[in-house]
């Protein structure tokens, strides 16, 4: 027979055992660390995250400062031309907002042009929304920067010649937005520096697009190679002989240039080009025709490899009085003296990876030698790297007149600002702070 009371002793024992375990659990302090960690995890994550947000705020401040510098230089340039403080203030605001278009939370705090003290002061703030610091109750970090420039009248006080080396290799279309950014930046520089009034002092720009060759065009190809253009190419590659790193005019007794079809690459397996000329864009000697310069830039297409030393050399030739017999009369360069300001701007987005004649050395070493000799002639050299490697940065820094003449642009906005800063610096404005 089943005894209905027989199970009670067993159940009672189990209840007592459970009570004992609960008692031990209540007395146990070993779980306090987990509880403490649970309470601390939010402020710890907030503090660590705050450092991340703070780093983002510092990056924004750097962009803000660069944009302010550009804006006050734009204002100073406007004042040179118009002589009105209100116009300078408007120019500063317009350039600043354009440069900071991709940054939200921007505010202009101060925008004053003071002709009596010859200064322009511009201050801006940017609000950076936090991601982690909001756990500590901080939703926004505010950064502030200020720039000042000198206001002077009269614009340039000497003739200006500026030669632009523009990289239009295949990597400039990876993505193609890079090429669009370059076109904007180059046209912006042309618009700033080429004055409408050329009666007292001239200001002209030359264009040297390059890839694995430089396209001299039919007008100049025969002059520099002593050959007739063939069915494919008016492209030339590096010079050989005693004058390969100087600006001596090619001709009788001087080394000439070779067509891209006359030489094999020295830095790769032997290759002779048998395709149409790359780049298709031709060089354009010094010109004050803004419309022609703009149209030439707009037509650029990206293709080919990076022979930056060729672009460097031809950038120099555009500024050299030695080459005046090659160019139209309106494109001849002034003498090497203090009466003419000669500026070279060398822009690339990659390593110099294409050289030809083995006796000339690597493309990078050739570029360095050309830069050194160009600077020795009194030419000021600015260099702009666009998303380049560390090796390319070192080369561009070596080519530049000084470290302050090198720009490291990591995106399209920074490229535009770099070209604009160069333009304003060339226009003889300076930052006072």
Brief account:
With 433 residues, the protein is α/β, with parallel strands linked by helices. It has helices at residues 8-27, 32-82, 85-99, 177-193, 218-225, 290-298, 308-319, 363-376, 390-399, 412-426; strands at residues 106-114, 119-129, 140-150, 159-167, 203-210, 214-215, 235-236, 284-287, 340-348, 380-386, 406-409.
Protein model, in words:
With 433 residues, the chain is an alpha/beta fold. The chain is built from ten helices and eleven strands. The protein has a six-stranded mixed sheet, sandwiched between helices. A hairpin with a 4-residue loop joins strand 1 and strand 2 (119-129). It is globular and about 80 Å long. Residues 1-15 have low confidence and may be disordered.
Largest sheet: 6 strands, mixed
Structural class: alpha/beta
Rounded Rg: 32 Å
Low-confidence stretches: 1-15
Strand coverage percent: 15-25%
- How much helix is in the residues? 25-40%
Give the integer mean of the pLDDT values: 83
Helices and strands, in order, run as HHHEEEEHEEHEEHHEHEHEH
Head-to-tail CA distance between termini? 105 Å
If helices are DSSP runs of H or I spanning 4 or more residues, what is the number of helices?
A: 10
Q: What's the number of extended β-strand segments?
A: 11
Strand neighbour order, sheet with most strands? 8-5-4-9-10-11
What is the strand and helix layout of this fold?
Blueprint: H1 8-27, H2 32-82, H3 85-99, E1 106-114, E2 119-129, E3 140-150, E4 159-167, H4 177-193, E5 203-210, E6 214-215, H5 218-225, E7 235-236, E8 284-287, H6 290-298, H7 308-319, E9 340-348, H8 363-376, E10 380-386, H9 390-399, E11 406-409, H10 412-426
Parallel strand pairs: 4-5, 4-9, 9-10, 10-11
Antiparallel strand pairs: 1-2, 2-3, 5-8, 6-7
């Amino acid at each position: 027979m089943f005894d209905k009371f027989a199970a009670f002793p067993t159940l009672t024992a189990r209840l007592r055992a459970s009570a004992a375990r609960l008692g031990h659990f209540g007395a146990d302090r070993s779980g306090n660390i987990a509880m403490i960690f649970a309470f601390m995890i939010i402020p710890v994550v907030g503090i660590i995250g705050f450092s991340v947000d703070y780093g983002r705020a510092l990056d924004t401040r750097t962009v803000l400062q660069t944009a302010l510098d550009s804006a006050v230089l734009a204002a100073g340039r406007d004042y040179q031309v118009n002589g009105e403080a209100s116009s300078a203030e408007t120019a500063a605001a317009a350039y600043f907002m354009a440069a900071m278009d991709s940054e939200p939370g921007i505010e202009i705090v101060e925008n004053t042009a003071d002709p009596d003290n010859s200064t322009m002061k511009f201050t801006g703030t940017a609000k950076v929304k936090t991601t982690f610091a909001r756990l500590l109750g901080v939703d926004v970090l505010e950064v502030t920067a200020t720039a000042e420039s000198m206001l002077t009248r009269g614009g340039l006080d000497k003739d200006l010649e500026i030669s632009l080396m523009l990289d239009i290799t295949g990597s400039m279309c990876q993505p193609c937005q890079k090429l669009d950014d370059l076109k904007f930046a180059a046209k912006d520089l042309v618009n700033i520096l080429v004055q409408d009034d050329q009666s007292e002092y001239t200001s002209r720009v030359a264009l040297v697009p390059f890839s694995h060759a430089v396209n001299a065009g039919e007008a100049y190809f025969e002059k520099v190679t002593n050959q007739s253009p063939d069915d494919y190419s008016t492209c030339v590659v590096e010079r050989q002989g005693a004058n390969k790193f100087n600006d001596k005019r090619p001709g009788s007794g001087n080394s000439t240039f070779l067509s891209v079809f006359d030489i094999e690459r020295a830095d790769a397996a032997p290759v002779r080009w048998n395709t149409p000329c790359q780049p298709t864009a031709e060089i354009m000697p010094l010109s004050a025709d803004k419309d022609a310069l703009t149209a030439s830039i707009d037509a650029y297409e990206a293709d080919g490899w990076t022979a930056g030393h060729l672009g460097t050399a031809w950038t120099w030739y555009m500024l050299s009085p030695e080459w005046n017999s090659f160019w139209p009369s309106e494109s001849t360069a002034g003498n090497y003296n203090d009466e003419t300001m000669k500026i070279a701007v060398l822009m690339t987005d990659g390593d110099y990876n294409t050289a030809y004649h083995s006796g000339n050395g690597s493309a990078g070493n050739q570029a360095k030698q050309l830069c050194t000799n160009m600077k020795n002639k009194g030419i000021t050299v600015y260099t702009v790297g666009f998303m380049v490697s560390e090796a390319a940065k070192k080369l561009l820094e070596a080519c530049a007149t000084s470290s302050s003449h090198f720009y490291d642009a990591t995106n399209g906005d920074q490229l535009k600002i770099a070209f604009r800063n160069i333009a304003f610096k060339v226009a003889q404005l300076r930052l006072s702070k």
